[in-house]
Write a structure and sequence with these properties.
591 residues; alpha+beta
């Protein structure tokens, strides 16, 4: 069984020392009570929920998996999952960031992101059951009628129901323009939804009273392609006139997938057989409404990468401290013991420092992005809201695409620290590797995130969010240009930032001349962007540590890890730059 300790100290450092979250949140509309004391208390309780309730179910839940009953088309979740969901609901976690008028607590999105990390570290598979509920609520808040919000959103906020998003179909994959699910109008104003969706996380389970599916389908007069998609609310159980649960709807799980990882999450094939549904938003505008959910989900999936990497890092560090094996190359460091521990080996330290650098850098990146969502939604100044929204749009593909890929590296290195013992299931490392593999795939693969970053956020939107971010980094470099504590970081950061801007301009010109260059360069451009972004947050972290009241050991750890990142990880940008410059000509046609 793997251990887990909520990393509250580093979360608080990132939130309050690096990002200055308290000063920002308390000046936003409705934020006067969002003080550090309140947010600290929320983090403390989330840490307890994760450590005491969720973490113990992680390994056993993976071993047991979900049970599908073909006769009743129902799913039973692993032992302890229902009790954990009850604790989650009773604690008000389902409505943490929802508005008060819907029954929520209206806490900032950034604290929701921080608590989500803790919950996902506790048990990633379990966290997928309530994960999409927040996105479903956001879609209903923006696009639903008051009646729809009261009937379907409030019970989710209360923690009695959950929500899903039903996009993908067997023939469609990521190309939603190919979907075939139909929506036929009924005489009473509802619609009969017919079709099959696949890969639906938590599409069927026994944790909540009802499940609200948000389903993409085509009306009879729908134009072809993605312009002809509408979105519908399709509940598992219909509602009676008084809002109580009525008859079972024609929406059921036809099977659950047998997957590489996240065994304890029911990933369903959902069959809609004339299911009663209700149009949400405007006809043929469902894809735009669904992106409301998807953007929130993409940030949450980035957090999943951080959550898995954090737990893997904690366990590999503990193992390296305790495992006695071999001697230091320069002579015994623990001569009174039968062998030295693994920490005396430089390559083990390399693996551990890599994990720490990527975990703590990713945490700052994700919380920064979440904080921008709060500014976008709550700032009183329209220009500030607009800029924050543009920053969020730019950061999302980096936050999702890069952090989930880095989780592959971190969990792999954690397993490697264990050596052969990491390959044995009872030590838990192989589960993290398996679970982490899906996060680069769902809610848009890494290639899709890369195409979104380069194709849409840079080229189509003329890099407006990118320009804001470059200006921010440049201002930081100027502010600390004479700071002795940051001298070794500011110079390389300024150089890398200029290279990022120059590379972007050259690449835009090449894509204009040959559109194929976009696909050839996108993933390497995403990586280049991610490594420079993390360098910025590591420089900010050192600056914040130096100015803080943190302990001497904490400050030194930040300095050492930042130096490691700049010396050994940031130079990876050179490789990605070379690949970008090689161009599409190096990708010949394959027969």
């Amino acid at each position: 069984m793997t251990l887990y300790k909520a990393p509250l100290d580093d979360q608080r450092f990132a939130l309050f020392d690096v990002l200055g979250a308290e000063a920002i949140l308390t000046r936003l509309q409705g934020g006067s009570e969002h003080t550090r004391d309140l947010l600290d208390a929320v983090l403390e309780e989330a840490g307890k929920l994760s450590e005491q309730v969720l973490a113990p179910t992680n390994g056993p839940g993976d071993a047991e998996g979900c049970h599908y009953d073909k006769a009743t088309q129902t799913v039973t979740t692993p032992k302890g999952f229902k009790e954990a969901f009850n604790a989650f609901a009773e604690g008000g976690w389902a409505g943490l960031t929802a508005k008060e008028k819907f029954g929520g607590q209206a806490l900032p999105g950034v604290i929701g992101t921080a608590t989500t990390e803790l919950i996902q570290s506790g048990n990633l598979a379990w966290s997928l059951y309530p994960l999409l509920s927040e996105g479903a609520c956001h879609a209903m808040e923006l696009h639903g009628t008051e009646e729809q919000q009261n009937n379907y959103m409030k019970p989710i906020v209360e923690g009695r129901w959950t929500g899903t998003m039903c996009l993908t179909e067997p023939q469609a994959g990521s190309d939603l323009g190919l979907l075939k699910t139909r929506a036929e109008p009924n005489a009473d104003g509802s619609y009969a939804i017919t079709g099959t969706k696949i890969f639906i996380s938590a599409g069927e389970h026994d944790l909540a009273e009802n499940i609200v599916h948000l389903v993409l389908a085509r009306l009879p007069d729908a134009p072809a392609g993605s312009r002809g998609i509408s979105m519908f609310i399709v509940p598992k159980f219909k509602l009676n006139a008084d809002g109580s649960l009525g008859a079972r709807n024609g929406a059921a799980a036809g099977a659950i997938e047998h997957k590489m990882g996240i065994h304890a999450c029911s990933t369903c094939v959902m069959n809609f057989d004339g299911a009663e549904g209700y149009l949400i938003g405007k006809p043929h505008k469902g894809l735009a409404a669904m992106f409301t959910m998807m953007n929130a989900a993409r940030l949450s999936v980035g957090v999943q990468g951080l959550a898995l990497a954090e737990r893997a890092w904690q366990n590999s560090l503990n193992y390296a401290r305790e495992r006695l094996q071999g001697r230091s190359l320069s002579g015994a460091k623990f001569p009174d013991k039968v062998a030295d521990n693994l920490l005396v080996q430089p390559d083990v330290r390399r693996m551990l420092l890599t994990q720490r650098a990527l975990v703590e850098g990713s945490r700052a990146l994700l919380l920064y992005t979440a904080l921008q969502t709060d500014i976008e939604s709550r700032a009183s100044d329209e220009a500030e809201r607009k800029q924050a929204g543009e920053l969020v749009a730019f950061m999302i593909p980096i936050a999702k695409g890069v952090v989930t890929e880095l989780a592959q590296e971190c969990t792999k290195e954690a397993l490697q620290v264990y050596g052969g013992h990491g390959f044995i299931a009872e030590n838990g490392m192989e589960q993290f590797v398996r679970d982490a593999r899906i996060i680069t795939l769902y809610e848009g693969t890494t290639g899709i995130q890369a195409a979104d970053l380069l194709g849409r956020k840079i080229l189509q939107l003329q890099g407006v969010g990118f320009k804001h971010f470059l200006e921010e980094i440049s201002a930081f470099c100027k502010q600390h240009a004479a700071d002795d504590a940051l001298r070794t970081l500011i110079g390389p950061l300024a150089i890398a930032t200029k290279q990022w801007g120059d590379l972007t301009l050259k690449l835009a010109q090449r894509v204009q001349a040959n559109p194929e260059e976009l696909g050839a360069a996108a993933v390497d451009y995403l990586w280049f962007s991610g490594y420079v972004t993390l360098a910025y947050f590591w420089a900010r972290s050192v600056a914040a540590a130096e100015a803080s009241t943190q302990s001497a050991a904490f400050k030194q750890a930040k300095r050492d890890t930042a130096a490691f990142y700049f010396a050994r990880i940031l130079p990876r940008t050179l490789m990605h730059q070379a690949a970008i410059e090689a161009g599409v000509a190096t990708l010949p046609a394959i027969d």
